[in-house]
Amino acid sequence: MSAIAEDNGRRLSPHRQDKRRSALSFVVIFAGIALFLQAAFVVHARPQDLITGAHGIADILSRAWPPDFASLPDALWPALETVDIAIFGTAVAVIVAVPLALVAARNTTPARPIYVLARMAIALARVVPDLVWALIFVTAVGLGPFPGALAIAIHSIGMMGRLFAELIEDMDMGPVEALTMTGASRLAVFSHAVIPSVLPSLAGITLYRLDENIRASLVLGFVGAGGIGFQLLTAMNLFQYRTVAMLLVATFVIVVSAERLSAALRQRIA
Amino acid sequence: MSTPLIEVADLAMRFPARGRDDGHLALNGATMTLAPGELVVVLGANGCGKSTMLRCIAGMLRPTGGEVRVEGQAISGLSGRTLTEARMALGMIFQSAHLVKRRSVVANVLAGTLGRHRSLGIALGKLPHQETPHAMACLDEVGLAHFAPQRAGTLSGGQAQRVSVARALAQRPRALLADEPVASLDPDAAEELMTLLRRVAHQDGLGVLCVLHQPELARRFADRILGMQAGRIIFNHEPRHVRDNEVSALYVKRDASQRLAA
């Protein structure tokens, strides 16, 4: 008698639990479909446009063929600019993000208010997209590669600052305690216990970021921050589709080789 | 009897209250001494205050009452640079080795000398290479000189703990404080480590204060055994004078006596 009473009360039989679970999954699937349909409606998704537009696409492709490799020498300098925007931005970001992460990690911060400030700075740098930072800096310092490099630096400080701080928070604090006991100075404890433990992951994150930043640097050209992206935009506006095709090939080569190189280096460190 | 290296007098430590509880009294009038050249083992149940006492002596915790003197100098009142200098006389060994795993064994031992080298280069991560012969001598003392160039992460638990002893010795301390140094070691490695600590005391003349959980190891290696209960030292004998029922009482009556003390 009592067992049945309990069953009807708080506890559900396995059978009823199953029923409840399948009802729940039905609701989840239904909600997922509804979410997708409203998104399709809002973006005016009309697949038939792709079919009627196929003619236009074919037209552009035929006009882009063959890629105009004769103008490749003109693209070399902007290509270097694109890569250098990323290198400069990443380097500046590492120099700022490492000390910032030390005060933004709960276990190494000197004081709570400094920790909060550092975390806020990192969050602000991260949540504003690099494209928006680039627009701000183009307005401030004018067109050219420098605003692009600044934008990449600021955004990367946000991205790397958070990852570095988490790395330090997850670190084994034992060596820190042990070296503090030997009478070493605070800075010496950082450089001899914290840095050697986190250096490989730090280098890995930086290389990954460099690879991301080369891609970001290409896009930043579209808002006037120099590099191959700006060339691409100009060629598009002048309907020089064969130049566009060449620039796309160049872009592909840069991005893929950066990705490969970064991955290979990261593998060697690990 | 030589002059004491460490004197602990009437030490009290009350941890700050959290919520309704009026704070935990971890030490309640603990008194002891440590002389050069002796290995003293502290026995006691979990929570009896042995680690807290060690941390107060090392200056990692500030006691709420009583006094700690290291070579005659009161350590409890010191802070900042003077505390750092005073505690350089004390080498600390922890439950785990706390080595920087990605650095070489000899680099880890060299790190023990950082306190006495305060140049900018050292602060920025350079090792004091002029100390390498000394570091090698310390490694040789723990029997691991041939591991010097190897990464610390490749060592076994027992080897790593011996390297941490070498690091503590590289500091040129007068006393070693060891907080359950064999807790994470297998019996053979524990045996080896206790032999090493005894040799450091008897041959090099360092005072060694060691917290242990194993009464049988204490009996075999210690020159003196301190029994600790509810924040006090309740016996202090040479091992042959320690009675079995005294030791077992440390672990049995803990609950009742702690309630009385609180």
Q: In terms of topology, how is this protein built?
A:
The complex is a heterodimer of chains A (270) and B (262).
Chain A: H1 2-8, H2 14-42, H3 47-52, H4 54-64, H5 72-103, H6 112-127, H7 130-141, H8 145-169, H9 174-181, H10 186-220, H11 228-237, H12 241-269
Helix pairs in contact in A: 4-12, 5-8, 5-10, 5-11, 5-12, 6-8, 7-8, 8-10, 9-10, 10-12, 11-12
Chain B: E1 6-14, E2 25-34, E3 39-43, H1 50-57, E4 65-70, E5 73-74, H2 80-87, E6 90-93, H3 105-110, H4 120-123, H5 132-141, H6 157-170, E7 175-179, H7 187-204, E8 207-211, H8 215-221, E9 224-229, E10 232-237, H9 244-252, H10 254-261
Parallel strand pairs in B: 3-8, 3-9, 6-7, 7-8
Antiparallel strand pairs in B: 1-2, 1-4, 4-5, 9-10
Helix pairs in contact in B: 5-6, 6-7
pLDDT < 50 runs, ≥5 residues of chain B:
none
The CATH homologous superfamily of the largest domain in chain A is called MetI-like
Query: Globular, elongated, flat, extended or rod-shaped: what is the shape of chain A?
Result: extended
Rg of chain A computed from alpha carbons, rounded to a whole number of angstroms: 27 Å
Number of domain units of chain A = 2
Q: pLDDT below 50 for ≥5 consecutive residues: which ranges of chain A?
A: 1-7
Strand content of chain A: under 5%
Compute the average pLDDT of chain B.
86
How many distinct beta strands of chain B? 10
| Most extensive contact | A-B, 21 and 34 residues
The assembly state of the depicted protein chains is: heterodimer
The number of helices of chain A is 12
Instruction: State the end-to-end CA separation of chain B.
Output: 36 Å
CATH class of the largest domain in chain A: Mainly Alpha
**Rg calculated over all Cα atoms of chain B:** 19 Å
Order of helices and strands of chain B: EEEHEEHEHHHHEHEHEEHH
- Widest beta sheet: strand line-up of chain B: 6-7-8-3-9-10
Main beta-sheet annotation of chain B: 6 strands, mixed
Task: Look at the helices and sheets of chain A and give the structural class.
Answer: mainly alpha
Instruction: Report the total helices of chain B.
Output: 10
- The end-to-end span of chain A amounts to 64 Å
